[in-house]
Structures are given as structure tokens and as C-alpha cells.
Specification:
The complex is a heterodimer of chains A (229) and B (402). Chain A has 7 helices and 10 strands. Chain A has helices spanning 45-52, 75-85, 101-112, 116-129, 145-157, 175-190, 202-206; strands at residues 3-14, 17-29, 34-38, 60-65, 68-69, 86-89, 163-167, 194-198, 210-215, 218-224. Chain A starts with a strand and ends in a 5-residue tail after the last strand. Chain B is of the alpha+beta class and 402 residues long. Chain B has 2 domains: 3-52 and 268-399, no CATH class; 101-224, no CATH class. Helices cover 53% and strands 17% of the residues of chain B. Chain B contains 12 helices and 10 strands. Classes of the chains: A alpha/beta (229), B alpha+beta (402). The interface between A and B is medium-sized, with 30 and 27 residues. The complex binds adenosine-5'-diphosphate and magnesium ion. Magnesium ion binds at residues 45-46 of chain A.
Chain lengths: 229, 402
């Protein structure tokens, strides 16, 4: 068991109104699972993903990550878990423009304090794995959308995390690059990383072995299927 | 995160944001340059005065007629009117102390000097034979004033080399006569060149016996007495002796001012310290202005890099790491700016000193070090607010801002 959410609530205070972004979420995720998270806009998918990624804290309820109660951890302890165990893939890539592909991928290792020589090998391996062997010194603006997303995945996976969280990773890509992206993520999942993908695309959502559907801050469907890749 | 990596990361963002970097470097560099120039100037003035004092000779005590009210106003006595005259006999009485090696009374005035139809204005100093060794002057030719009775107003004079060449041309002056005011004087010697002190040029001076000068200027008082001690440690004893002796001779009235060289020097030092402090204060203001600029530029930078901060947090940067990254950036900018400022400041000092040797404008090492240190600390202090602001950003909101 990697993740256990118990009666999670996330309430945003907007002026005098309360927005219940997440309501009574109970969810258990095992190591190595592949989940898709679908649902209408505003249903709370991103909020749930941010919470799982320790970028946000629940208003109430408990969140166990690898049997540790995350709600008792302080900011830097949570930062440490994000750094070593969780990889994010964003819709807008979020690459730092002034850094090269190599330097962008290097960032999480640098934050962890890995020495430069060791970093070098790991970053090489991650970029090679994404088919970016000749793009080390390119800045993001010198790369195509698909290449940028692959740099972002290399950055998310260079630390060999247990959990990969992807919030609409194909949302900014054409169909071909989007499919390529999903295949890369599925490949990582088959190597043992737990994968959670938020998507609007039903075709992509159906590829996951476990499909969650959210409406109004609640999980309304939790379907397990046999993989159809 | 390794320190090296923090520095490298900051360096990359400094290097790749050229115009922002240039602006901040300029502000700090100007501030540090002005610190170095201003302190250099103050030091040059201090050294100038110190040099002048050193050329006066050491171990000296000065006596001036009249009493100044406070020690701080010692200088004013020389400009104020004479209250009670100091006579030649008074000066002679001051030789009677075992630690006094020489006493030279002085009377100074300006007079017109002429010879064979040539005429000029000149400073005329009345003094005694003791003045020559006391000021460490050298004779060019002939001899200095005769030793002997100070009261004797003999019509002889010693002249500077410029006076000689102007009044005598190629002729030898020794043994010849010239006229000072209405009186005839015989030239008995010519003084060699010597460094001028406080604007008094030996080359343009005429020296006569003290009694002759008093008659010439129709004064009953000596202008000042210079007393040389045989040891610096005896100066306080001599001061007391002088005060007491003059008091006894002036019917118990303490009406002369005794100045030691140390005291005058100290007064100047106090003035220059105040000057340096003022100047350092002005420089500090320019550093503070640079600091505020750093802060504002960094605040803008933080708001422009909100997405980056959100990303760093998502990648597992702790709040402390974010603070360090931004602090390092502003500290590095201020340090580089300071180093540029030191380079420019020292170059400017060097140029000034080369073209105006009298202003040897080199700031002391401590000033350069303090300038750099203060600039660095300014960068750190003014970098704190932007850095903390960056660390406090909400990662989700920051990532959403695109
Ligand atoms: N920071 C926030 N402040 C206020 N309301 C928020 C905030 N973040 C999300 N919400 C609200 O929570 C709900 C869920 O949002 P979100 O998780 O982004 O939906 P989704 O990703 O499924 O489109 C929405 O109604 C949204 O307006
Ligand atoms: Mg969303």
C-alpha cells in the first residue's frame, strides 16, 4: 500500500463562501498501480492530485503516504518526500527557460545534494531514456512541444520516484505526441512506478487499469479493468 | 543542496538576466567607488597635514602671547590680538630648563625689501641662531645669524635663494647690503632650499636678528617662541615649566598659550576623524540606496519568477533552500558590484595621485575591506525580504501562474 486517503475534505474559502473541492474522499492505492482520473472541469481532480503530491494539505481527514501520516509533517519534511519519492508532470511543462535541458533535469538531484559527478550519469541516463541524447544543451525554446514534455518527464523520473503524478500531460500536445507521452508514462509504470494521470481524453483514460471518475469533489466511480494496450 | 550548486544556480540566473544584473552591479559599484574616493580624499588630506607637521621638526613646544579660553581653540590665539607682550627676556628665561635644548623666538612681518633700484615685498622673520638647527635648515653660503646677545639689534640678515637671485642676479650677495623698510642690513648668508611648511617658503624669506625685527615692525612682543626638547617624554614637563615661568614673570598672570605639537596634531586628527566619519556616513547612504534598489529589483525578479519558485517547490525545494537561492543571488550581485567598485575606485585614486602627487589618495586597506563587506551585508540584508517572499509563495498558485 502506497497511499491511503481517509475521509479527506478540502474546503476553499472564497470570500464568504466555502468551496468544497474535495468531499469525503476515501482511496487506497497500491504500489505499481496505474490510475486515470477523469471528470468534468471543476470536479476536484487537480485539487486531489496536488494533495497527493503534498503541494497542498487537506482541511480534514488523514493521508498516509507509505504508512507515514503526512499531515503531521512540516514543510521541509514534505519537501523532502516530494523530492525523493514523487515526480510531477505538468500540462505546461514548467521548464525553466534560462536553463538547458540538462540543467532542468538536474534540478531535483541538485536540490537533494547529489554530487555533480553522480548527477551527470543519472541525468544522462534519464535524457537518453527519453530519446533526447542530442538535446542536452538546448534551451526549452529550442525544443518542440513533445521534446519539452519529455524533458519534463526526465526531470520527474531522474530521482526514480515511487509515484508519478501527471495533470493533463497531453493537454498541450498534438495527438501523436500525446500518445507517445502516454506510452512513455506507461513504460515507466511497467517498470514499477505508481502512475496517476488526470485527463479529459476518454481514450487515454480508458488505457489505465484503474479508472476513477470525479463529480463535485467526490469519487463517483472506481473501475478496475484489464489493460487493453 | 550543495553550496557550490547554490552558487552555480544563482550565477546562472545572474549571468542570463543581463540588464537586471547590469543595473544592480552599477548601483553597488557606484556606491563602493564613492566610498573609496571619499575616504581616499580624507586620508590624502590627513597625510598632507601629517607631512607638514613632520617637516616642522619633532619635540617642539610653541608659545604664543595671549590666552585662549579652551584648549580646542588653541589655534585661535595666533589670530587674536596680543594681550600682554612676550619679551625677549621672557624667551631667554625659558632656556633655563635641563630638558630644553633650544629656544628660538620669532617675530614675523612683511616688508618691502630693495637693493639698487630692485624692490619686492618679502616675509621677514626675526629670530636667533637657534632657528637653523631647530628647523634643520642648511646654509647655501655664508653664515647664519650670530649667536650672542638676543637683545642686540644688529643690522645683518640671511636671505633665501630666490631673494638672492631676484635682488642680486648673478652677483654674490654675501657682504653686500640691502634695505628692509628704511634700514640697511648686511647680507651674511644665504639659506639653501628647504621644503616649505604651511605655505612659508624658505627661498623667499629674509631672516634678521629678533631684536632687529621688533624694531623694524615696531612691536614690543614676540610673535611666537619655538622650544625644542631633548626628549619627547619631557614635553609635558617643559609645558608646565613654560607656563609657570611666564606666569611668574607676568605678575602671576597666566596670559600665554602653550601648544605642544602633539596637541595641535591631535586637534587636526580629531577634525579629520570627524571628516572621515561624515564622509563614511554619506557613502553609507549611497550604499543604502543601492540596497533598496537591490531589494526592489529582487522583488520584481521574485514576482517574475513565481512559476520557477512553484516548480522548485514541487521538485522538493524546502523553504530554507528557496531563501538561500535568492539570498545568494543578491549577495553575489552586491559582492560583484563591490569588487567592480573597488577596481574603479582604486584606479581613480591612482590616476589622481599620479597627476596631482600632493593628493596621494590611497584609501587604507580597512576602508576598502569595510566597503566590500558593507556592500555584501547590504546585499544580504536587503535580499532577505524578497527571498522570504519567494519562500512563502504557495506552490499551487505559483505553478498556475503562467
Ligand atoms: N485555490 C483555490 N481557491 C479557491 N477555490 C479553488 C482553489 N483551487 C480550486 N478551487 C475550486 O475547487 C474546485 C475544484 O478545482 P480543481 O481541482 O482545479 O478542478 P479540476 O482540476 O477537476 O478542473 C473548483 O470549484 C475550483 O474553483
Ligand atoms: Mg484541473
Amino acid at each position: 500500500m502506497l497511499i491511503k486517503l481517509d475521509r479527506i475534505q478540502r474546503i476553499f474559502q472564497v470570500g464568504s463562501e466555502q468551496v468544497h473541492a474535495l468531499q469525503d474522499i476515501n482511496l487506497t492505492i497500491e504500489k505499481g498501480e496505474y490510475l486515470s482520473l477523469m471528470g468534468p472541469s471543476g470536479s476536484g481532480k487537480s485539487t486531489l492530485l496536488n494533495l497527493l503530491g503534498l503541494l497542498d494539505r487537506p482541511t480534514s481527514g488523514s493521508y498516509l503516504f507509505d504508512v507515514r501520516d503526512t499531515t503531521t509533517l512540516d514543510d521541509s519534511e514534505q519537501a523532502h518526500i516530494r523530492n525523493s519519492r514523487i515526480g510531477f508532470v505538468f500540462q505546461f511543462f514548467h521548464l525553466i527557460q534560462r536553463l538547458t535541458a540538462f540543467e532542468n533535469v538536474e534540478l531535483p538531484l541538485m536540490l537533494r545534494g547529489v554530487p555533480a559527478s553522480k548527477r551527470r550519469q543519472q541525468v544522462h541516463a534519464a535524457l537518453d531514456g527519453m530519446g533526447l541524447t542530442n538535446r542536452f544543451d538546448h534551451r526549452p525554446d529550442q525544443l518542440s512541444g513533445g521534446q519539452r514534455q519529455r524533458v519534463a518527464i526526465a526531470r520527474a523520473t531522474v530521482t526514480a520516484p515511487d509515484l508519478i503524478l501527471a495533470d493533463e500531460p497531453t493537454g498541450n500536445l498534438d495527438r501523436k505526441s500525446g500518445n507517445e507521452m502516454i506510452e512513455i508514462l506507461e513504460q515507466l509504470n511497467s517498470e514499477g512506478m505508481t502512475l496517476i494521470v488526470v485527463t479529459h481524453d476518454a481514450a487515454i483514460g480508458k488505457r489505465a487499469k484503474r479508472q476513477l471518475k470525479m463529480v463535485d469533489g467526490r469519487i463517483v466511480e472506481d473501475i478496475r479493468t484489464q489493460a487493453t494496450t | 543542496m550543495k553550496t557550490r550548486d547554490i552558487i552555480r544556480y544563482s550565477f546562472i540566473s545572474i549571468e542570463r538576466a543581463r540588464s537586471r544584473t547590469a543595473l544592480m552591479l552599477l548601483a553597488v559599484a557606484i556606491a563602493v567607488t564613492s566610498v573609496i574616493l571619499l575616504i581616499g580624499l580624507g586620508e590624502a588630506a590627513r597625510r598632507y597635514v601629517t607631512r607638514e607637521f613632520a617637516s616642522l621638526g619633532t619635540n617642539l613646544v610653541f608659545v604664543l602671547p595671549g590666552k585662549s579660553e579652551t584648549t580646542g581653540g588653541a589655534m585661535s590665539a595666533s589670530f587674536g590680538g596680543t594681550t600682554r607682550p612676550i619679551t625677549i627676556a621672557d624667551a631667554q628665561a625659558l632656556t633655563r630648563h635641563p630638558s630644553v635644548s633650544r629656544v628660538a623666538p620669532m617675530v614675523i612681518g612683511a616688508a618691502s625689501v630693495n637693493r639698487a633700484g630692485l624692490e619686492r615685498e618679502s616675509v621677514v622673520q626675526g629670530t636667533t641662531a637657534e632657528m637653523l638647527p631647530l628647523r634643520e635648515w642648511q646654509m647655501y653660503k655664508g653664515s647664519f645669524l650670530p649667536t650672542g646677545n638676543w637683545q642686540h639689534a644688529s643690522p645683518v640678515c640671511v636671505i633665501g635663494r630666490k631673494i638672492e637671485s631676484e635682488l642680486f642676479g648673478p652677483e654674490s650677495s654675501v657682504g653686500q647690503f640691502l634695505r628692509i623698510g628704511e634700514s640697511r642690513f648686511r647680507v651674511i648668508g644665504v639659506l639653501d632650499h628647504a621644503p616649505s611648511t604651511f605655505g612659508m617658503t624658505v627661498d623667499e624669506s629674509i631672516i634678521v636678528p629678533v631684536a632687529s625685527a621688533m624694531r623694524l615692525f615696531n612691536t614690543d612682543s614676540i610673535f611666537r617662541i619655538m622650544i625644542e626638547s631633548n626628549h619627547p617624554d619631557s614635553i609635558p614637563a617643559i609645558s608646565t615649566f613654560v607656563t609657570n615661568t611666564l606666569k611668574a614673570r607676568h605678575h602671576g598672570e597666566d596670559d600665554a598659550t602653550v601648544i605642544t605639537q602633539d596637541a595641535v596634531h591631535e586637534t587636526f586628527n580629531t577634525i579629520f576623524n570627524a571628516l572621515t566619519l561624515t564622509v563614511a556616513g554619506i557613502a553609507a547612504i549611497s550604499l543604502a540606496v543601492a540596497g533598496v534598489l537591490i531589494m526592489n529589483v529582487m522583488l520584481v525578479s521574485v514576482s517574475q519568477r513565481t512559476g520557477e519558485v512553484g516548480l522548485l517547490k514541487a521538485l522538493g525545494a524546502s523553504p530554507a533552500q528557496i531563501v538561500w537561492l535568492f539570498l545568494t543571488e543578491s549577495a553575489m550581485l552586491s559582492l560583484f558590484g563591490a569588487l567592480i567598485g573597488v577596481g574603479v575606485g582604486l584606479t581613480a585614486c591612482w590616476l589622481v595621485s599620479t597627476y596631482y602627487p600632493i593628493l596621494d589618495m590611497f584609501p587604507p586597506v580597512w576602508a576598502v575591506g569595510a566597503g566590500v563587506l558593507v556592500a555584501f551585508i547590504t546585499g544580504l540584508v536587503f535580499g532577505i525580504l524578497p527571498a522570504r517572499q519567494a519562500a512563502a509563495l504557495d506552490p499551487i498558485a505559483s505553478l498556475a501562474k503562467h
